[in-house]
């Protein structure tokens, strides 16, 4: 059994390694002579290039580079990465041309060094400190996202800098520690490199909260001393059980990091004695099956704590972490966590992506490795793609990255079993946008675990979510912004609405120009939209007024660049100066016409199809060009601005028992049998129905029913409206004006 002692390097300093020790370390997994020669050449190169340069601590600068290389070797990085670790400051600090690096050590090494150099050369380009930090950090992420080896070298570089932070001023210590927590710790966590992440957290806390750091360090040390015997007894008992069942194993004592305890005490409000996993046993075996077998044996022997079991083997974390976790009550009443995993899982748990793609001679391919990382850690590509979603806005990029990627703690499955990571409180709509922006925009429904649910339903880890889409989806609306939580979804919805509003405003201005033309052509005797378009929708009109099409013509009218009178004059349409007289037309007192007009002689009179006036409505006549008088309801918007061509008209007293067409619209909350109830209500009043249509708005769940009915007069229509409004869920009933 191996016991891991509490780390003392924070107080006692770190051992300084020489290059021979680095060489001995990577010699355990790199045997190719040419690779050895390249790494040795890189070491001799930095001795020459950095000669005479010293760190603030007073030690020669190359010591830092050797330490970075040593950290990379502990992660079993390949020769290219080790060389890049040694050379990462040469271009920046010695003005060595990148071409020289490429010529001596190859393109791969030069590419990594170039990315690291660009990160080092970030300039203060913003006035605001917050804007600068966002810009700075965005460039760091984008620079590292080009190649995972850039990230690993940068993490090793930052780790050694944090180990030697004592030589800097207090202000610099605080700035660098805060940046480490905000930028580098989340990356190490998401890559699963726990061995670096944990140390960076503890070192940052040492400088940011020194009193709390020392307090927790003492509590931890005391806990280990008082419970060491108890923990050893538990480990020995479990070892005996595993020996009896011939299960291969290795047992280690795991001690929770200082920063993790700090998080639980000061962010989650727990007392130190309430943290059960301060001390834990880690059992390492050979196979997945043996992990579950060990778990069963432990639960047979010791009482497990309910709700404390987690199976990360069946459901790995997004950073590839796998293990079984359980908390048990030992024989002396103390509570301990037990972690069970295979050797490979243990390597990945400590070194994350670095262990998963550790250097193997004869099978190493950097481009293939990068593609595998992107496929396995699908969030990794978001480092770059998220800058596209945020249009390069640094502040928005960092907020999106922090919330959607680093803050993700809900893990949901697609129907095909792919894991999608989302922030806490994420909804089905967040899930849809996480799949793809186009999926989000075309969403019409969602299922969670095969049950239809509203789009604002919050997701839980383990849910299987399926999104229903449609090419005819109405698209995002402002209400969606009220319940999505992911920054990516919010940003995409806002952009969609902005574009939609721009298109809407363009269409509004086209309609405005069209209405201006309708008003402007009335004094020329032309009143209908179709008649106006017949005159102006011609190439010679477009050419004369320097527009490309009818929409542009209406836009120009709306913007007052073209006046309707200009159009009418160009078309040769003359103004009407007096009311026309009509001869040999249908007379106003025809038995078929329910309306008459005084003092105009014989004239053709028609009921306008736009507003469908019926007996009992207040009406007015409009003198058209060559088509007699058109009768409108007095509030019809098509004649609202007309003054010159209106005449008084009247309903006849001797109206025949006749029914008149009326188009109506009904809005109601969607429910089953709604359409049947509407039709039954109309039938109960002996209302003739000649057309009916229903359409559901999937966003509001409001159904709109339009219908064409026939009634005798306005009083009868009022009774019909009252009946329809009494139906369950009906919100509004109105007449339609075309």
Task: Describe this entry's structure for a reader.
48% of the residues lie in helices and 15% in strands. By secondary structure, it is of the alpha+beta class. It folds into six domains: 207 residues, Hypothetical protein af1432 (Orthogonal Bundle), CATH 1.10.3210; 144 residues, Beta Polymerase, domain 2 (2-Layer Sandwich), CATH 3.30.460.10; 96 residues, Beta-grasp domain (Ubiquitin-like (UB roll), Roll); 74 residues, no CATH class; 57 residues, no CATH class; 76 residues, ACT domain (Alpha-Beta Plaits, 2-Layer Sandwich). Strands 1, 2, 3, 4, 5, 6 and 7 form a seven-stranded mixed beta sheet that branches. A four-stranded mixed beta sheet has the order 14-16-15-17, with no helix packed on it. It has a four-stranded antiparallel beta sheet with strand order 20-21-19-22, covered by helices on one side. Strand 15 and strand 16 form a beta hairpin. The N and C termini lie far apart (86 Å).
